[in-house]
Batch of 2 targets.
Target 1
Amino acid sequence: MESRDPAEPMSPGEATQSGARPADRYGLLKHSREFLDFFWDIAKPEQETRLAATEKLLEYLRGRPKGSEMKYALKRLITGLGVGRETARPCYSLALAQLLQSFEDLPLCSILQQIQEKYDLHQVKKAMLRPALFANLFGVLALFQSGRLVKDQEALMKSVKLLQALAQYQNHLQEQPRKALVDILSEVSKATLQEILPEVLKADLNIILSSPEQLELFLLAQQKVPSKLKKLVGSVNLFSDENVPRLVNVLKMAASSVKKDRKLPAIALDLLRLALKEDKFPRFWKEVVEQGLLKMQFWPASYLCFRLLGAALPLLTKEQLHLVMQGDVIRHYGEHVCTAKLPKQFKFAPEMDDYVGTFLEGCQDDPERQLAVLVAFSSVTNQGLPVTPTFWRVVRFLSPPALRGYVAWLRAMFLQPDLDSLVDFSTNNQKKAQDSSLHMPERAVFRLRKWIIFRLVSIVDSLHLEMEEALTEQVARFCLFHSFFVTKKPTSQIPETKHPFSFPLENQAREAVSSAFFSLLQTLSTQFKQAPGQTQGGQPWTYHLVQFADLLLNHSHNVTTVTPFTAQQRQAWDRMLQTLKELEAHSAEARAAAFQHLLLLVGIHLLKSPAESCDLLGDIQTCIRKSLGEKPRRSRTKTIDPQEPPWVEVLVEILLALLAQPSHLMRQVARSVFGHICSHLTPRALQLILDVLNPETSEDENDRVVVTDDSDERRLKGAEDKSEEGEDNRSSESEEESEGEESEEEERDGDVDQGFREQLMTVLQAGKALGGEDSENEEELGDEAMMALDQSLASLFAEQKLRIQARRDEKNKLQKEKALRRDFQIRVLDLVEVLVTKQPENALVLELLEPLLSIIRRSLRSSSSKQEQDLLHKTARIFTHHLCRARRYCHDLGERAEALHAQVERLVQQAGRQPDSPTALYHFNASLYLLRVLKGNTAEGCVHETQEKQKASTDPSPMPTGPQGPTLSPLMKAASCLDLNLVTRVYSTALSSFLTKRNSPLTVPMFLSLFSRHPVLCQSLFPILVQHITGPVRPRHQACLLLQKTLSMREVRSCFEDPEWKQLMGQVLAKVTENLRVLGEAQTKAQHQQALSSLELLNVLFRTCKHEKLTLDLTVLLGVLQGQQQSLQQGAHSTGSSRLHDLYWQAMKTLGVQRPKLEKKDAKEVPSATHSPISKKRKKKGFLPETKKRKKRKSEDGTPAEDGTPAATGGSQPPSMGRKKRNRTKAKVPAQANGTPTTKSPAPGAPTLSPSTPAKYPKLQKKNQKPSQVNGAPGSPTEPAGQKQHEKALPKKGVLGKSPLSALARKKARLSLVIRSPSLLQSGAKKKKVQLRKAGKP
């Protein structure tokens, strides 16, 4: 809880204790506690709480405007202005302002006088000076925020004088009083300002230019009352040569004051407007901003210049924009963008993007200014590379004319770069570099062209919905032409040939254009305007680009390809166009569109790599003709020429070859085409896919598919950027190099082998550098010998270094190949996902189980890299969600049934041999999926006979169903392909292994999933579970846990007949009873867990019997439980015994024995000779009194049972302090008399049950029953409690006409449990009617 500040009022209790408060204040506090709480809520940090409290306070005071509450509220709010918590002062100030705004009859002068009297700056102590200063400041701000200060002349003058006095305390308040004064004067009228101005503004220009606040007050007066200011100060030229340095200092001070706020000071924008108004903007920008602030090498001043540049964009004309965007400020901004690369460095680029976006959005009707600003920012370059990113979000605000002009400027700069028009710069590290190639114009042109082509593509990518189709086509044709074609002679039919290059287009630049073109092609294929990848004419964009390429190929005199076509390649191009025309006749078919897309894409790749794509294009055309000419077939046993592979296999190989290319567009097209041909898939075609996914075959050297890498292309794209970043971050690179050298040394030390050591020893011995025992007597080596030895060692270490580098290169090569292979496998998994999603009923899907499991096993073992993780996640998602959990599956197995049974057995065995449970779970789920497939298929020879049996059957009940599908009925077992005996044997072995093996990877959820999905196996597997209930500790716990979860499943119950189910319940009950004979004797944690499992299973068994209305003999069980009660009580205080006791008494409650209440004895009934009356009164500090100490349950439970008296009366001892609610709850439940049995076990023939049991089970009442004792105690003491509980169980008096005790006395020795009688499920009048009907029977 927060400590109260000295200035805050005291609470009512404190006021009463101190006695120093006035009587009316105490009366006020006593009058309304709610009113006082308002002021505490006003100071809380939550804004909603403060506002709500202020609103409630105003509503409260509106009802009592003349009462004492108003005076107290004013005093309390004024007191709050100077509290010690700085966060609470603005809250009280705002509340006071709203109070003064709501009650205009309150005089402001009186409020200001109270503030000054409360916080008198002349009399306040030094320790309280700072709170007093802030109290005066926030008091004036409250008057100003109320909106009444500018209307009250007297209060305004006093406030101005107070602010001037507060301005002297700069150490505490800094410039806040002057800022408040400027804010107040900006709201007053001109007449009032003329009157006040001489008092607040000095006539000295040196004072005016001494601080931002004084200058801002001067500019305010010049704007509102220029004539009065001229009389006071005279004619002032702020932009004179004498005043410019002063303005620079003032702006520097303003920049420092907003350093943390990161905003533009108002004084800077006011000076900019004044310069524009007086037509002195060039002088202001050149001398004040560029020559003044920018030369200070002070980053807050530089940021002020950047913000001033962004804020000035909407205010400047086109000529002024050209002046600003070609100066030093924009160049310095570019340097900042290039050098601010580290994560913790402040980056101004996002803030500048906001300024530019606001400007472009605000001048939609002026496309020339939009184009000028965008071109200017694109012209700020670092050695030819623009500092703005290729993907710039502000282009979305361009108007259509400005967008067309910007695209035209980009194309012109690409063809004929004008390096002189650029605002180019070099960083300090680049200037220090001695490499002359970094400063050549060819490098700058390459960097600029590369940026331009990607900027064009990003414009289409971000504005594909808003761009005009003609403009998009211009960009696409431009990229296509300069990617693959060269102009020989200009022609008017091809506009792209009219503009020659001022600098020749190098191969690196052309490769960059080609990469950008395929990125654009992906954008046009996936993001569309009219239809998927189509223009307004209805044709895909790729079709239009192919037509344009054909036009260029036909103009061979004017245009030629970069890689000339051979005659065969040109024939392949012409055949492709012919096939496209044939596909138009099948345009209604969905696969025709996919084939068209594939053909167009490979046709465009023919321009990039003719030799590789020529044969591929011919094979695709052949497959397309066969696919469209072939009729859909239902059987896959069609005879095929063995010399020629089916078209599906050829097309799958083509798709795999396309997936090997690092192109996202190719990946999408291959996925789309495979989705249309997967219905025609053959086993051989599927095997081609599995060969890639199978780790054993895909890692061979002779792979059929060569995985290509675009690292060279990526290196081309980023080489220049990396070199630039390397120059800017030279120090960080040197650190990395030193670390790399250390790692190389460590690796070199690790790579030293025995052979190198032997060679080194040989060289040293040959040079006699290693001496033997007589080395001391030998002379030292001469200079020539040392030189020869040095040369030998140098050559030896050079060879070793080469060997180490070769091994390192080989290792990197293998890692790179592995990474490429993993990427390829991830892309090939797309085809598997398409197959299991679109053709789940295809029998070939069953062939995917083991390959996918193989990938999962390998990835789980070595899932260290991100690629392995991605491969694992994607494979697991396909296997789990799309395959095992699919709603549809194969219904036409044919001759695969026997193989599937063997596969089920193999999968279950593999699951049991896995090193961990996650891997075993995938294998187990695969076996469950195959079980589902086998169960859902019918044997051909048994279908007709089964149908006749079903017609002849007299049982019209439908086949039971489960959540995962139909459960096998006895009539359908013969018609199913499932070999129940084989499957039962397989899972019985797995279950036995799970129960007996200590570190088994199998888990309980696996078998629960088996029982819920295929409950028909429970009849054969339950005996194994029942057998292990009484086994060793771990099997017993697992068996009990499985039975707990399984017995309550409706699917399992539907597989058993009523006699079988009752027999099973009896067997489980007998096993549990045998376990409970050692209840309470647990010495270890495992034995304790064993007892818990047995009791939990017993309670589940009771609930199941109650639900099924079964009758079981519980005499032996009750005797066992009562016999173990004493041993259970002895371990009552052991760790974890509370859960055991709860389960025990839950079972006893089901049997009719209520848990006894444990009441604490009164201290008066337990006299102690060691405690005197004085010791009872004087308790030791830190110790509990005797009445609060917990008594041992053993002593409390044993005594009443022996005496035959109740364990707790409930009324003899008054409730202890602090437990009234608990005692009231216990008092509502009737006490069970003698609920605790004696230490001796009852006789087997003596039934022990609570008196309420006969009322629950009326059919067990017989006339020849004799009275019996309850829990071994006499009947007379238990009669009142028994009657009380029986009356609560039967609210209808006299239903049976017999007392509860007589009903219990006639109970037989055989105790039966009939749970869930109809009377227990009915309530109210229904329950009474049933009881009356039973009472009326003879």
Note: The longest strand covers residues 380-382.
Target 2
Amino acid sequence: MTLTLTKALEYDHLGETQTFDGGITLETRAEVGLLTHNVVVRGSNLKDWNDKIEACPDGFDPGEFATHTCFQGRFGEEIGSDQFGSQIMFHQQELNAGEVVGHIEHIEITYAGQAFRLGRYPIHFHINGDMNGSYVRGCGIHHTFNRAVNIHHTDNILVENNVVYDVMGGAIFLEDSIEVGNIFQYNLAIFVRSSSSLLNDDITPAGFWITHPDNIVRHNHVAGGTHFGFWYRMLEHPQGPSFTEDIWPQNVPLGEFYNNTVHSVGWYGLWVFEFYTPKVDGGKSKYGVPIPAVFKNLTTWNSFRGAEWVEAYPMQFHGFVLANNFMAGTEHYFNRGTAPQYSQDGAMVKDTVIIGHLNSANHPPCTKRGIVLPLDGGVLFDGITFVNFDGEKNENHTCSAIGTVKIVCICELLCAGYNYKFKNIKWLNSNKKAYWEWEHQAELEDLDGTLTGHGAGARAMSKSNLFPPECFDDDEWSPNFGGMICPGNESVDVIRMSFNYAKPESLMFKDLSVQNQYGTSKTKFRSKGNTFPSGWMLLLVSKLPHNISFINMDHITNISYNGAFYGLEDGAHVIVQHPVMQDIYDQFVVEKELDPSRNYSKTEPLTYENSLNGDTYFTNETKVLTYMISDKPNNPDVRLDRPITLRAIKCFYRGCKRPDVEEGPPVATERPKDAKMWSDPATWENGMPANDTDVTIKEGDWVVADTVLPKMKNLNIYGTLEIDDQKDPATGHVREFVLEATYIYIRGGRLLAGWEDSPFTGKLDILLNGNHHTPEFQKKNKDDDGPNIGSKVIGGLDLFGEPYNITWTHLATTADNGSNTIILETAVDWNIGDEIVMTTTSFNPWETETFKIASVSGDMKTLTLNASLQYKHLSFEESVGGMSYEIKAEVGLLSRNIRIIGADYNDMFSESFGARVIVGMQTELDEKGELKPHIGYARLSNIEFLHSGQLGFVASYDARYSVTFFDIGKVSTTRPSYVTKCTFHNGFSPAFGVIGTHNLELFNNVIHHTVGSAIIVVGNNNTLRDNLVTLSVFPGSYQDRFEENTLDWMASIEIQNATNTSLVGNVVAGSERAAYRLNGESCTEDEATWANNTAHSTVMGLTMWQPDCLKRELCSRFSGFYVYKSFSYGFYSNSICSVIIENSKFVDNGMSIFPYIKEPRAQEHAFKRKFLEVYDSLFVGASASYNCKTDVMKKDDHKNIALSKTAISWAFNGPVGRVALGWPMFASGDNLAPLLPLNNPHEPPALYGHITFQGVTFAHFKDTCGMTDRIFSTNPTGPDVEHPIYMSRIQLVDVDEKSKLFAHHPQLNCVDMSCDGKKKLIIKDFDGSFFGTPSSYIPESEYQYNGDRRHGFGDYRIP
């Protein structure tokens, strides 16, 4: 039949049969349907609304995350209407009453349905129950405003032979997920388009919206819709008025889906989303025997995706033809559940043709991936024919037959890794067979040789060095990352390993080195993953041992992680080996649940024959932690997954429980008269100690070192070793001592140099030898308890160096680069030759400099240095509004006369393995077999630590910091401990760790260059006072590292896990991450105790994360802080706690304050008072000392800044300069920071939140360095609600009017209109101190009303 039309066609419409290799044909023909009939049901068309709507310039974007730029005209030019059309409703008062029958046939329905009105549809079957015999057939339904045929809790309707065109929202729609027995056949749905006038489901509409599987859908066509052809979305239980917990639609077997066609839709031809798990019992419960849902004979062409299942299992697609779909032919997310794997009863794609591109001229871009494999194994691909995957490109991607899925927020990089089985595969004009992106992406198993052409059992994989040489590169399998084939006769089997939560924390974010007999592979850390996220995933060759180590961390010995091995069958096994450098393990287990009847620890190397799953092997000779993963015991008939929990640790105490120990007698305060001299041969039973021997100071002995000491291996002190401070009679000078050893172990004894009231005046270097390969210290008996000693260590001790009155001060005047003279604020008692450190006063912590003193002026304030300054160091102060602040470089003394030094060796800096002091509690068996306790203590005064600490040993159970107080309980008069006026510089770890220790004081210490934090405190009633910390280096960028997946936001001072800590007068000057990580003080106490703490020259100043805050109050207070030149945030919190900030100063920060305060959830209608309150504080936008040229850091210049990208505030990005307050977010839940940007909203806003500013001074907010600094700024990515700000008693000094607030324009990402949160701001000035008169600020709520159409905001939104 030939039709002559009344007007010419605007577009080309295909009408041809396309023929492909192998005789495959595809009908690519536009459907033509009849809309008009002699009986017409037409809604009124009020001509007053018939204005012309111009086409949106940007058109319609069907993308999943698209922002529509117009409310109207997205689908081209059209004539507007009031969208208030006719409706036909069938309803009866009781279900199944049989009172209503509907017969609608061969009529035209147009201008029907009523927008914005639920239940007002062109044809509506409304809560009738069984309507067997009713039908809608042969009708033309077009130009509707609210769906087409809506079936609501009604069964057994026949809908056939209808033509549906230009429908707003879902066309044929099952509403409550309870509708069954309906038949949809031979219908045509054209141009089913997105609508914002009803439910979310209508924003992304489907031609057929099926919410209950027990319906028949066959022989239908969907063409030209904005989103879906067929969307199966089964609910757990029916919804709305049909709700009942007795019906489980997600578990009902599929009725029928057969011979349907979709083309030219914006999203998917068929989408089975989100959950569908059919069971034999018909959905009467959540549990039952799985039964496949078989979707048959779908044809989809020229759509975004052909077909996709998400959380649906077992699913089967049979007889599909999928051609030229933009992203994928068929895509699969997950295949879970208990259905048999790789079988006719499990997940399967069968007898399907996937065509990369059509043969017609000017065809759309080719299909990027023919099959997109799921993030699970178990799927069988049987009878797949790939056509025309011949090298064409789509957006710079070579279109390829096979790829693996990526899921936003679950896994987007380094994904998959599963086994997928193929048989009966055909390749027609297809030489681009897989698109590999990384080494461990997938294992494609060829069951019959048709996938690879290399025999049954062959594997196609991405290229890896771990496989035997018989595996060869194949260009057809490597259009991107290299691909390879392992022939079937090699019988290569692959086991997937995935694990995370590696401990100690220093293992996190590191890459892995994996080695077997064939080669070495490097596996990157991944922050996301469908299994064990924030961890690693790799493919191992079955039946081989694999050596796995953490790059740059191979010296770590205590190793723990959680994980699983996937896909073991038919004798599959793998031996995992972790090489270590030490030989002390009290616990080495793999299985989560141990069988008490088994002995897991083997005494001979593991083999498949002599071992079971979870067996372990370790010897001191090999120093390799080895464990077996296998299918034994209980060899499975199907592939088996093996979960593991690896724990290879040394417990401190027997039973891993600290024993109760009584305190010993108080320490002696003077040398006893019967003390022995080291130089006296009578002191030694076996002669004078020689070099490279072990030396023991016996219990009860007091030995005075009065001569040159030998170089020792082990120095064991049960008694007392005192370093003599008397003048040498031969020279008349105080002796200089070098105490050199590999281990100094004080077993209840004492190492003494000087006295508390009479400090040591000579020189003493305690030199500790050792490297990564030095054996850990061997305790006297294997049953001795206590913390891990490691190497290069000394225990409790008394060291009193020569005192200094001033350990650090400030510059009195600015020191310019090129100068070699500095003037100090305070007279010092420092000496020529002493080493000093001068802190940065810019944003760059690496502008910290060290020098030696060449001369000192008579007033002891002017120092001449041994070299010229490389950088300018400021000394600036200002008073504003009755408050003052200063920006002055700190200058600290590093030299002391007693030094503890990590002895130099060739690899010292690459290994970063220095000296350390651990003060702990030990128990050991004495000669009578009785338990004898030793509680360590240490009084360290004016001691210098050089090259101390050991990189990577950060776990609390093996914290190898410069000084660690571990588990000694309360400091007391009988066991006194403190660290005062000491220096730590050029170290490799934190300087202090205070763990399980209470009442300890750290006072007036200078710490320069730590890797990681400087001070970590976990304990009660500890004091940190007047300490100076400079240059805390981020481990992720230390030396040549660039750990781009790191989520570690270490702080120089971390006390978030401590209680009742006194924090007064400390300074952090230069940190590559944060200055302080804190838990805050109580909000209910009358007065705060924290005071006068400073942070400057950091990426962030103060931080408080979710685990940190005071949960008992849900509020944390921060008082007495001064933060300047924090590149990103001066204060950032991300927790459930409200925040009070008082008596604090914030100067020259990127953004001074930005809290993210979360919970309760608005979705649960929960309400709780949450707040940010700021009192009596000062905020300075840009001080007079701010330098537009030098106070700049760019990520291209500083790799740590590049690694900090998620934390960089929106300040400096766009029209906003420095900001006092980034509008706080009160959110319903977590925002996934720092994985995502710290200001990312992620969750909906909370119902309540308020911000208060009282007694606050704002100064110097104006145009600076080409940008405008602001007191308040909204968050450009913030939520669609901004909570109110209340202000009173405000002082403004040198503040431009425009700098008071920057409100971003509304975001264009709320579906089809701008988000209006930015238009609903409110700032209340109660006393006029901010705006000049008591008033409220309300933004321009009418912004873009009837203006820019992209905002979707105007009269045309009125229904």
Note: The mean pLDDT is 91.
